[in-house]
Amino acid sequence: MPARLWLLALLAVGPLLGVWLHDTLARRSASPDAIQAEARDAVRTASGAVQVELIDAVRLLRTLAAAPGGPCAAMPGAGVWPEGIGFFGVNGTMRCGSVPAAASVAGQDFLRAALLSPGAAPVLAGVPSGWITGRPATVAALPLPPAVPGGAPVGVLAMGLSLESLRSPLAADADAPPPAFLLLSARDLTVLAGVPATPSLGRRVALPVLLADARQSSTGAVLARSPGGRQQWFGWQELSGVLDQPVLLTVLLPDDFGTTVADRAAWLALGQAALAVVIGLFAAWLLVGRRLAGGLRQLAQGPLSGDVAPRRLPAMLAAVSARLTGQARQLAAAQARLDAAGATLAEATEELRLLAAGAGEMFEILPPDLSRRAVRGATRELLGYDADALQARAPQLDRPPEDWDRLRATLDRLVDPAVVITCEQRVRRQDGGLAWLETRLTRLRDGGVLMVSRDVSRRRRAEDRLADAERRLATLALEDVLTGLANRRRFDEAIAQELRRAFRVQERLGLVLIELDQFAGYRDSQGHVRGDATLRRVARAVAGALRRPGDLAARLEGDRVAVLLPGADRAGAALVAKRMLGLIRALQIPDLRAPDGLLTASAGTAAVLPLPDPVAPATLLDAATAALATAQRGGRECVGTANLSAAAPDAQRPEGQPPPDPPNGTSPLIDHSGHRRVPGT
User: Fold this and answer.
1) Who has the most CB within 10 Å: 102, 247, 273, 371?
2) Whole-angstrom Cα distance, residue 54 to residue 64?
């Protein structure tokens, strides 16, 4: 009868045990969070031992530096410090040390770093060769303070460190091999120390993922490709309080580290499953009821009593077994549906990858910490990377800092999963060039971000060329083609604007008109080609006479050039005109028709203070034109000045309407006494 009882119990709990066993085996793969926690514990243990060793070395160096008789008097003898210790001058020559033979360390990194150390702080460096012991070594160095304040250090105390003895206590258990570790510079991952000894001392290691994560956190763990080419777990912690330089203690965890953590998780899950089975058996025993329990006891002990009908017990057991079997079938069907859904998802993912590659788009999934969780699509076509290589890179390393900041700000605004934001950003290609990508951003429900990007570099280049063409066209629309000065359209806009400003701020506005003397005859005798070249030279001379940003020189027509001088009064405008005529004479342009054989010019000037009413542009221009005519009647190289009054009856005369005839043959706008010849002509 006991055998029958055990058989019935096995039939009752067998399906439940099978389901729990399947779940236990499925949970064998440990989560990355558990692996990272184990890795951080390992590196935390290592950091304590390494910090103690560094503190002892720095304490010994400071003791020797403060010795009354100097470091050489307190220097340990030969054999006391196996890794070598010595006092070196600034030129690298050994003054005393633990070896009898003199040695030089000139050019070594530790000597240079110690001499440049701010505040005479101790430094750590890896020496691949040339150390006084003849072996590669990790060197702790301390500069001795200068003899006089502000002077250079008098020398450097340096000692070799042996960290091999720290490796054994780091093993997880006595049978497991101890992990290897490196001391790296946090600035550029230069190897400062390695256990076991490594030939990479003093060199940089290529671990961009580790460097990017270490800049964001002082401790952590990451799965990255080691210098040997294998995927390996690295744990790191920044050592502080010993050296001024930032140092990372990096532990290279064993290859089976992730599997070991997973095994522990699987055994824990298996124990939980066994406990659940026991609890389930006990609960089933209570739920079946007293009568079924009594019947099972009678079945185990002997013939059934009359309390339980023999015909009812098999039916009850069959019902329980059928229900458990049905639940097992339902679980098996659910597992089959889950497997089918996984296969369908894998096929859809592959189809999406092929579709994205064919459409020239790249898909990136970024978790909330903005690392890369997955990369698919046309990564090689867009950036030149394989998908796996790009996924291993931190996104901020592929973008200029200003583009990364704009992307972060855009992601901060993206909260609703139903909203899609499109932006354009520059991303660095594998060959170092920058590609313009148009990216659609969608917030995922787990807080991550889906980024779908396509290359728009050709469109951006076309837009840039179009913008340059539009700027050139706008410049040409306001620029004289022959001389490069402003054209008449630009001048008309400027004089109207400056007169309005002068009226608003109650400031004067000066105007100078310049014409070459008898230039029509010069062009007829010299030809149009030489005449155009002469105009260009004169335009450059006029533009060179302007000293202020607000001054404007414009070619109105033919050889007539106008110069607007905001803030200039009558005397100031005349002074600028004389300077321009002097510069034109200095060009030494031959003109056989001129008395002295040189081409000259004449000028007319006018200035106005628009009080109490505004002055029309035509009024100021007519005044300067009349002054120019007066100067030309006086001969070559003359300057005529006009005294313009805002109270003149034509102050509001529209542009183009001729001014009224002056009474008695004189112009109220022209001061004929201002007509004078330029000195030196």
Assistant:
1) 247
2) 16
Axis-axis angle for helices 2-26, 290-301 (nearest 10): 120
Residues in the chain: 681
For 58, residues 6+ apart whose C-beta sits below 8 A from its C-beta are 122, 140, 142, 242, 243
Residue 36, both tokens: 């990272």
Architecture of the 32-255 domain = 2-Layer Sandwich (3.30)
492-534 per-position pLDDT tens digit: 999 999 999 999 999 999 999 999 998 988 998 889 999 999 9
> What phi, psi does 484 have (nearest 5°)?
85, -5
- Fold agreement (360-460, 480-677): no
Cα–Cα distance for residue pair 562/579, rounded to 1 Å: 14
Model confidence at 677, pLDDT cuts 50, 70, 90, reads very low
Helix (H, G, I), strand (E, B) or coil at 196: coil
Q: What is the pTM of this model?
A: 0.36
**Mean per-residue pLDDT of the chain:** 77
- Burial letters for 613-626: b for 16+ Cβ neighbours within 10 Å, e otherwise? eebbbbbbbbbbbb
User: Do residues 389 and 395 lie in contact, with contact meaning Cβ atoms separated by under 8 Å?
Assistant: no
Is it true that domain 480-677 has CATH number 3.30.70.270? yes
**646 exposed, middle or buried (CB, 10 Å; 0-12, 13-18, 19+)?**
middle
Give Dmax (Cα) for the chain.
155
pLDDT above 70: percentage of residues in the chain = 71
Amino acid 539 reads A
241 Rama class: left (phi>0) / alpha (psi -120 to 50) / beta: left
Query: In the block, which residue shows the tokens 């030279």?
Result: 537
Tell me the backbone φ, ψ of residue 314, rounded to 5 degrees: -60, -35
Indicate the residue type of 143.
P
List the structure tokens of 149.
Answer: 């304040």
Amino acid at 490: R
Amino acid at 514: I
- 3-state helix/strand/coil string of 435-475: EEEEEEEEECCCCCEEEEEEECHHHHHHHHHHHHHHHHHHH
Q: Whole-angstrom Cα distance, residue 604 to residue 674?
A: 10
In CATH terms, 360-460 corresponds, of 3.40.50.2300, 3.30.450.20, 1.10.600.10, 2.40.30.260, to: 3.30.450.20
Amino acid at 567: G
From 69, 101, 75, select the one nearest 87 (Cα to Cα).
Answer: 75
Nearest to 452 by CA among 347, 345, 355, 384: 355
Domain ranges within the chain, ordered by starting residue: 2-23+275-340, 32-255, 360-460, 480-677
Residue 173 confidence (pLDDT) above 90 = no
- Paired strand residues for 421: 441
